[in-house]
Write a structure and sequence with these properties.
Elements lengths: L1 H28 L5 E7 L6 H12 L6 E5 L20 H13 L3 E8 L4 E2 L2 E2 L1 H5 L35 H15 L4 E5 L19 H17 L4 E5 L6 H4 L23 E5 L7 H7 L4 E4 L4 H17 L8 E7 L4 H8 L18 H8 L2
Parallel strand pairs: 1-2, 1-10, 2-3, 3-6, 6-7, 7-8, 8-9, 9-10
Antiparallel strand pairs: 4-5
Helix pairs in contact: 1-9, 2-3, 9-11
Length: 370
């Protein structure tokens, strides 16, 4: 009995020490991470002033050094004006955002969702609405009243990566958005791609889905490399959802995960996990890929992810240290709604935390970047 009590006390002391080490580790060493990021939808034109204030008063003092703005079609493209959303950002709006970030040495990276996420609920996004011939699954019609799950397995539409004309348009968008944001990096999204290699597609049907996914990554990466730019993507399609138990959202159940061994090693992986602090950053690092861990709404999960990233980096070999790049808070509501919540307005309610006042994007952000 005495020996058991001794062992219990010893374990408690060790755990207490680790907890204290973890807390001090995060507090004192977050600035050692190469990437301390914040990802949010680009503000509408009418919200640029408020967002610039947020950059000055919140992002900069918290030592954020990377801002990923999900632009998509919220910009008045000059090469493809037919794709711009109503009320989209102008070149002058973007110049002001870029200037604010430059003042604080914040690297700004625009995102346009490519391959997947070409629709949302019952609405087609601009690319497939204007160029329906690019649709991977034209036989799947957009419903008037969208529900999930559905008989078509429709979450979001994809474009066909083998369509002979799609990349001419895609490359124009990439080039223009990188030029106007004066950046050397581009985020292509590429998460949650459920429609790929569809059997009814005359080009993709019957092809290996992993090779199709990897081929699109290489195509985008190689085009960016011509201008000295790097590609960032979300990492979920590169994880085996069945073996890991991560499922169809945070990982792949349609066999794209094998693409992890087929893509260039200079692609930056944004590894998102929102309900658990899964250790997949180590997996990506051991595959020779740089990785950023990405939380969303749970402060306790986010702080564990931060501690993990710091610990992985601190204990890694000199070859592996550069792989552990940092952490990036993700925001999945429009910028104006987030700013209202952040400054004490109504809490953003989503399908996962209707009654939960602790698990919010605001609390998660403040827990990581104190």
């Amino acid at each position: 009995m005495q020996r058991q009590l001794y062992l219990l006390i010893s374990c408690l002391l060790v755990l207490s020490g680790l907890r204290g080490y973890s807390q001090s580790f995060s507090k004192n060493n977050i600035d050692s991470l190469p990437v301390r990021g914040f990802c949010i939808a680009a503000p509408p034109a009418a919200g640029v002033d408020s967002f610039i204030t947020f950059i000055h008063k919140e992002l900069a003092p918290r030592h954020i050094n990377t801002l990923v703005l999900r632009v998509d079609y919220n910009y008045r493209y000059q090469r493809h004006p037919e794709l711009a959303d109503e009320g989209a950002l102008t070149k002058q709006d973007v110049a002001r955002l870029v200037k604010a970030c430059k003042e604080h040495k914040i690297r700004i990276i625009p995102q346009v969702n490519l391959l997947g996420h070409q629709s949302w609920a019952g609405t087609l996004n601009s690319l497939l609405r204007v160029y329906p011939q690019f649709d991977e699954t034209p036989h799947v019609k957009m419903p008037e009243n969208y529900v999930w799950p559905n008989a078509d397995g429709l979450y979001c539409k994809s474009y066909c990566p083998l369509h002979p004309e799609v990349h001419k348009v895609v490359f124009d968008l990439m080039d223009e958005i990188c030029e106007v944001f004066e950046t050397n990096a581009f985020h292509a999204g590429m998460d949650e791609v459920f429609y790929i290699g569809d059997d009814k597609c005359p080009r993709c049907g019957g092809r290996d889905k992993a090779e199709l996914f990897a081929g699109e990554v290489r195509t985008l990466r190689d085009h960016l490399a011509l201008q000295g730019r790097e590609l960032w993507i979300w990492g979920d399609r590169l994880l085996d959802g069945k073996t890991t138990g991560m499922g169809m959202w945070e990982a792949s159940l349609n066999n794209t995960y094998r693409a992890v061994d087929m893509i260039p090693k200079d692609v930056m992986i944004c590894d998102w996990h929102y309900d658990r602090a899964d250790k997949s950053a180590v997996y990506f690092a051991m595959k020779g890929l740089r990785v950023i861990t990405c939380p969303w709404r749970k402060p306790e999960v986010a702080t564990e992810q931060l501690d993990d990233m710091l610990r992985f980096q601190a204990s890694a070999t000199k070859e592996m240290k550069p792989m552990y790049q940092g952490i990036m808070q993700t925001i999945w509501s429009p910028a104006p709604a987030f700013l209202r919540e952040y400054y004490g307005g109504p809490r953003i309610v989503n399908r996962r935390n209707d009654e939960d006042s602790l698990h919010t994007q605001t609390n998660c952000f403040k827990a990581v970047f104190k």
